[in-house]
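Narrative of accomplishments. A recurring question from our advisory board has been how the design workflow behaves on a single, concrete structure rather than in aggregate. To address it, we present the structure tokens for one chain from the evaluation set, followed by the sequence designed for it. No filtering or post-editing was applied between the two.
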């Protein structure tokens, strides 16, 4: 799939799949009206993560076949709500892991926070460097993934705190249709236990309400009890659903 023009066509059974981009990297895969985007899950896990934009199970099967041709043995879905997993299941995907979803109404008094910087033009290199220190392996995010999350909402921002002229923590947020999403929150591992996570979360709630959010949603690993306890102390409760990551293993 390498080439100077970065446009390739692979012919699979019945319908050709057109691919824009070079792997490993961000790809756009189309077959007529159907379209999906793919990129490596993160910098540590090279398995392709596919976002289905238009199309059904048959097209997903073709996408999986495309990656099989280049030797990728696992294809992953994004984190999906249960109602969005059915088409993936019909294409042969199975549940791989789940994330707890928590929510909080952005009403009542939200304590103002000092020393938190808000920007719509973040330094992605610095943020990605901190994220690599805060999360390891499967749970890390690539710089591409961080930028994608920032671009998903009509209103987005990165909130940050600094200590001794270095980034101590950040929160990545987006608001759309009255819902504020806490896409990511991370604290430098050398600067935990100083209240930075709480400050960022409180400031995130304030930013979300100012951006028109009536509810804030976040997700967290089921085993991360420390983070869950912080969220609960600040008024978050379990939502009625989980998010699910599915995978297709290739023989």
């Amino acid at each position: 799939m390498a080439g100077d023009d970065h446009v390739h066509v692979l012919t699979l059974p019945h319908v050709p799949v057109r691919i824009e981009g070079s792997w490993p990297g961000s790809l756009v895969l189309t077959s007529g009206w159907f379209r999906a985007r793919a990129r490596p899950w993160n910098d540590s896990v090279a398995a392709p993560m596919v976002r289905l934009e238009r199309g059904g199970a048959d097209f997903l099967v073709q996408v999986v076949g495309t990656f099989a041709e280049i030797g990728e043995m696992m294809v992953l879905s994004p984190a999906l709500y249960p109602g969005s997993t059915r088409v993936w299941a019909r294409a042969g995907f199975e549940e791989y892991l789940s994330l707890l979803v928590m929510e909080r109404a952005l009403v009542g008094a939200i304590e103002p926070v000092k020393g938190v910087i808000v920007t719509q033009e973040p330094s992605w290199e610095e943020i990605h460097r901190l994220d690599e220190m805060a999360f390891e392996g499967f749970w890390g995010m690539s710089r591409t993934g961080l930028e994608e999350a920032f671009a998903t909402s009509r209103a987005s921002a990165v909130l940050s705190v600094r200590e001794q002229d270095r980034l101590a923590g950040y929160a990545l947020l987006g608001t759309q249709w009255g819902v504020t999403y806490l896409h990511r929150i991370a604290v430098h591992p050398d600067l935990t236990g100083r209240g930075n996570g709480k400050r960022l979360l409180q400031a995130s709630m304030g930013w979300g309400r100012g951006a028109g959010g009536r509810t804030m949603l976040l997700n967290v690993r089921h085993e991360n009890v420390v983070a869950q306890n912080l969220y609960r102390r600040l008024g978050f409760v379990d939502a009625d659903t989980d998010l699910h990551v599915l995978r297709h293993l290739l023989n």
